[in-house]
Design goal:
Helix 5 crosses helix 6. Helix content is 52%, strand content 12%. The chain is of the alpha+beta class. Strands 1-4-3-2 form a four-stranded antiparallel β-sheet. The longest helix has 23 residues.
């Protein structure tokens, strides 16, 4: 960033929050990364950048394998999928339904609906939304007003 700013003749201003180690990003930048660099040498930054590029390309490829989803999901179909694909399908389903900020926790909550012995038949999601299992299908239950 510093080189780009100088090259482009852009005025640079340091954000006052950058020095505050209460923020995780600043602890990583100011303490963790320098410690890793001391332990493994300066080449670790290039290795991290390579790994990030590989992961970005693999993420794009894996996302292309996720089938489109409808308003409901078949429990049987989900159970037959690999765990990784199953999680991605459920995450897509949550996003398509505009569930606020779905992530790993919400995905696992939905996947708990697949357990017909010990799992719940209904789970609560953000935005006063609910997912439910009935007759082998997962669906969103509209909130009661």
């Amino acid at each position: 960033i510093t080189a780009f700013v100088a090259e482009q003749n852009v005025p640079y201003r340091e954000d006052a929050t950058n020095a505050n180690i209460a923020h995780t990003r600043n602890r990583l930048r100011g303490r963790v990364i320098p410690a890793i660099e001391r332990a493994f040498g300066p080449s670790f930054r290039a290795a991290i950048l390579r790994a990030a590029e590989i992961l970005r390309e693999e993420e794009s490829w894996m996302a292309s394998l996720v089938p489109e989803v409808g308003a409901t999901l078949s429990c049987e179909t989900l159970r037959k999928m690999s765990p990784a694909l199953r999680r991605r399908v459920v995450l897509r389903w949550l996003r398509n339904a505009n569930i606020p900020d779905p992530g790993f926790a919400e995905t696992n909550l939905v996947l708990s609906l697949l357990d017909t012995r010990n799992g719940p038949a209904k789970i609560n999601l953000r935005g006063n939304r609910h997912a439910r299992r009935r007759a082998g299908r997962l669906f969103f239950e509209e909130p009661q007003e």
